[in-house]
Amino acid sequence: MKDNFLNSIYQKCTTKQSITQSEALKILAEVPLLDLVQTAYKVRYEKWKNTVTIHIINNIQNGFCPEDCSYCAQAKTAKTGINDYPIKSDEEILNEAKAAYERGAFRYCMVSAGRGPSKRRVSKLAELISKIKEKYPIQVCLSPGLLNDESATTLKEAGLDRLNHNLNTSKNRYQEICSTHTYQDRLNTLQSAKKAGLELCSGMIVGMGESNEEIIELATKFKELEVPSIPINFFIPIEGTPLSQKTPTNLSPEFCVRILCLMRFFNPNAEIRIAAGRELHLRSLQGLALHAANSIFMDGYLNATGTNQVETLQIIKDNGFTIESEFDLELLLKTSELNVKLKSLSELNPAKKVTVKT
Fold this sequence. Notes:
The protein has 358 residues and is of the alpha/beta class.
């Protein structure tokens, strides 16, 4: 029975047929995990073969945000003690773009806090994008907040490849996580970007109390919007944010993999990205998850740290994948620093008192 079911799912993916609600619920709860991943990998392979794209985020401005997104460390309602700073200098941003390129990143993602950029900020961002594209053969993604048609067109003309703006959660749940803007505001930004000819990058945060039906709703919405890049974030309960104590995550590694498989089946040709929280929730199944997803963030997220370069590249290699980059994966691993430190005496023998010579 399971083979017939998964064969049907595979055929629907390859012939662009829609997956039903009841089929999607089975994917999230019933089908044996390894059988599910095997089918997701078959779909993944059709478009992406054995490649993984690496993304590196640059938080070009931190804090000073007037929005109250209750999951975010930078929100005006957060009491996280983050270090606020205005937008970085052009030199800093260009140097970080260079570093991302040389470390094997396929795409460099610039993120700034705030409701949305002013006309002056849009002009500055456009200049930066032009400089990056002139200097380095790297894709550029920008996450600047809410945009209108004019701003989106300006950024497109400057050479921007993708505009990131996550829907984050379902339409009905959105008011529970933010009151300063709406789900429709976010949808309008995506529509402006698409109208300007920008590729869309839009995903969700799983683990904020949503139901399986709501996860399916978002998978369907990304399909409707024909989003080519879908980051799946797994909720990180950052202390000092309103949601950190209220939201039950209940995200087992298995369930996280199932969500990635679901996104792959609904969006067969999309870049499905394992994003924030993978270390916390996927844990030892990060490598398995790459058989459904084909993209991953390296070196952390906006305000939360993550797995370093060596560990991320090793996960990719150990699972039989290579990276989409001008740089060779093996070479990057050889030249990356693996800091192996010997244990101290106090770590080796905690009971032994260390005598300090004077």
